[in-house]
TrEMBL record, chain A:
The keyword Manganese does not apply. Pfam families: FecR, FecR_C. This is FecR domain-containing protein. Keywords: Membrane, Transmembrane, Transmembrane helix. The chain crosses the membrane at residues 98-115. The keyword Repeat does not apply. Residues 328-396 form the Protein FecR C-terminal domain. Residues 185-279 form the FecR protein domain. InterPro entries: FecR, FecR_C, Ferrdict_sens_TM.
Automatic annotation (TrEMBL), chain B:
It comes from the Bacteria. InterPro entries: RNA_pol_sigma-70-like (IPR039425), RNA_pol_sigma-70_dom (IPR014284), RNA_pol_sigma70_bacteroid (IPR014327), RNA_pol_sigma70_r2 (IPR007627), RNA_pol_sigma70_r4_t2 (IPR013249), RNA_pol_sigma_r2 (IPR013325), RNA_pol_sigma_r3/r4-like (IPR013324), WH-like_DNA-bd_sf (IPR036388). It comes from Snuella sedimenti. Transmembrane segments: none annotated. The keyword Transmembrane does not apply. Residues 120-171 form the RNA polymerase sigma factor 70 region 4 type domain. Keywords: Sigma factor, Transcription, Transcription regulation. Pfam families: Sigma70_r2, Sigma70_r4_2. GO terms for molecular function: DNA binding; sigma factor activity. This is RNA polymerase sigma-70 factor. The keyword Transcription regulation applies. GO terms for biological process: DNA-templated transcription initiation.
Amino acid sequence: MSKVNDHILKLIAAYTANNISKSQLNDLQKWLQEVPENKQLFADYLQLYKKSQRIGFIEHIDIDNAWKSVVEKLERPLAPKAKTTGSKLRSLSVMRGIFKYAAVVVFLLGIGYLLQKAYFNKPSESVFPSENITLQLEDGSIEIIKLNTSSNIVDAKGNIIVSQKGNQLVYTSETDKDTLVYNTLTVPYGKRFKIMLSDGTNVNLNAGTSLKYPVKFIKGENRQVFLDGEAYFDVAKDANHPFVVNANAIDVRVLGTQFNVSSYPEDETISTVLVEGAVSVHNKKVPYKPETATYLKPGFKAAWDKKYNSISIDKADVEMHTAWISGKIIFRHIPFDDIVRKLERHYNVVIKNNNKDLGKDFITATFDIETIEQVFKYINELHPIDYTIKNNLITIN
Amino acid sequence: MRSRDLKLLEKLKSGDASAFKELFDLYYMPLSVYALKFCGSFSLAEDIVQELFVKLWDEKTFMSFNNAIGPYLFKAVKNNTLQALKKRSRYRFEVIDQQLDLLIEEEMPDMATVEKEKKKLYKEIEALPEKSKGVFKAIVLQNMKYKEAAEHLGVSVNTVKTHYSRALKQLRNSLDAIVLVLLV
């Protein structure tokens, strides 16, 4: 039945046990090619090994222990604990809102999303060590925020100003301030960060963004923050205190809703994409009047042209605009020229494009765990280009 | 299975944490077995599945699932395992491994079948000579490396190698009937 000599048998054994050297593998390969029966024989052994291993594995698994270790690793507790601070515990519903949309993205990507999640906490792909995320306090002093750590930032008197939980800063309404005191969080290229403001509003900050906001909102006044860059807001409902995002030339005013504002100085437009609820966009130079503001419906985008001071409303690809929250960039039929800045911010690189044809070429792609090298390899496949990547400078000729 | 899965998804989406535990109980074992099929390492297989559950809860990825959760999980496990393997790639025959994987492609191993196989296997293992038995159990059933098995049994690595290949040979002969049935 078995025509395997001891030498070959040891090679097969070594192969199954994942303990085979390169020269042994060559020997095994030669033997496999001698006659077709050898392959079948080899497959039999592998099958025997795999089936047996599976049986051993099932015996070995301790599902209670496995559950314990999963629970230990969770960052989000299974059962929300009641807080005494009076801050709103809305994490689940907030996440639901966000993921309803991130969701669609995931669905399109299929597995890429989960993969990306698995590598979510890996160091960012930037070629250069990028700058730090910083928090500027009211007295102008600057704190460096490290990713994935938890600590409290205290003022000179030892009072806790804000606590960091992983990749989020959390403000509570506990502080005894009754005047407006601002902090500014700045996120460099290649990174992202989250804040929960004192009213429970959650903000996701994209790469290359800074947000100035009060440590505590004051009763009876609008909740006003200042954005430079791109952020996704999930605003805590409070009809008595409109939430206003001040983005360069425009103000975005909301009551309680979810939306994305992109206002990078280098971009020609300021765009607001509404995910849920209702917002209005209006020119800052004109005092706010409900009747003159532009209202957005969910799924629409308001683009403010900085040069012409004009606003246009269009149906928006919500997934595309909010993909960055989960670390992805999605381009659907976008000219290469228009994706350069996004790539630069996401990967913390500088792209010099001397190829005019490429600039006009439309790109459709989704990137999540890809490195900038892989991104360019992909673009090169779509549109063959002559490019070099040196440190964080990419030159296309 | 599928209707239970869909009910769990609905409960998860409504924020019910107990559904997460139910989902874990339902899928932890089959997913781990599935991961093992690709990686052959007990610890890596379990790590990958645990990691997936952690992400599932922390990132609420299930919010995007429109259909049963199972297929998403299996796909993710497969991809994550293959990804992890790339990093620690040893010398393998991919083609043969893949053909073999096809033979045992079913995602949920039927527990009744596994139980039958187990009984037969244990019977044959018990019939092995003492040393071969110990070595086979250590390497295959407990996923030890040659070196670990040698230390565990207090013998040399060469002895482990010899007895392991002998055990394989004998088992293949005695289990030939089952193996062939499985191949059909």
